[in-house]
Amino acid sequence: MTLLSRLAGALACACAIAGAHAAPDNFPDRSIRFIIPWNAGGSNDIAARELQQIVAEQQKITLIVENAPGATGAIGLGKVAASPPDGYVVGMGTSSTLAQIAQNLTPLRNEQFAHIARVSTDPLILLVPKDGPANLEEFLAHMKQNPGKVSIGTPGTNNLNHIFAEMTARAAGVGYVNVPYPGGSRVIADLAGRQIQAAVLKPSESKGQIDAGYVRPIAVFSNERLQVYPDVPTFKEKGYDVYPYGPLVQMAYVVAPAGIPPQVRQRLIDIFSQAIQSEKFKTFAQQNGFLVDDMKGQALDTEVRDVQATLNSVATKVFKH
């Protein structure tokens, strides 16, 4: 090989290496698929579409929201995990999937994902029909007077709603009847119709019925009261610990496939954090009764790990198979 050939080859290699390192600097240069592993119209889908608009308006980046429901989030997140780790496919992880992982009901594992930013936390609330017990004390007293007979509805089973229904019964010191439904809309409808005596739901999926006066929130499964319902007390201030096994939160967060380049992960963190921290999204969160913060990157890694550890412990103590 001539010296000229060797130089040409070396130059080609150098250009290729430079191109490989330069590519993330241009990220994203096309649209990003945002897989939501739940049906359209649900709370996570609505939040994703709000972020889609904000990112387009403020950063001129296109997010394509794609619904891939099924298996408590496992189908959609499976698509994310199997995608090329280039940052052009992201998804919405939730605590519900972490609960599935805790019970080995899905082959997914958190190590398959790079955590980007937390979108929301949804402090769950205990609701009763409009003419039900006036407050938490009266409801717990009613449970004690009717051991094993009071029904509490939840969207799905073996999830955080189920855990907090169990914690409510433990606060009363009696058993109860857990009534799982395929979704929150069915729960709230039967609660308003007095087919069940209580429910554990997100504010975002019960606010319409609350505001219309069909149901009433009587307690919040959180350490702080909700801004949207400031008069509703927390279990904690009433002296009841609903986190006996460690930190537990209903949350949604953006994930990418594991193995994406650090520069690309940081760029995704910047894109989503900017949108989540925008005044428009904060106003949207307040109107829909969920909370936002600036948890991202490594801090979110730690949060997911802590919530997973708690769910792993809870699974053996609450969930029955």
From TrEMBL:
Keywords, in A-Z order: Signal
CDD domains, A to Z: PBP2_Bug_TTT
InterPro entries: BUG (IPR005064), Bug_dom1 (IPR042100)
Alphabetical list of Pfam families matching this protein: TctC
Signal peptide: 1-22
Family: Belongs to the UPF0065 (bug) family.
UniProt cross-references to PANTHER family, sorted A to Z: BLR1237 PROTEIN (PTHR42928:SF5), TRICARBOXYLATE-BINDING PROTEIN (PTHR42928)
Protein name stated in the entry: ABC transporter substrate-binding protein
Organism the protein comes from: Bordetella genomosp. 11
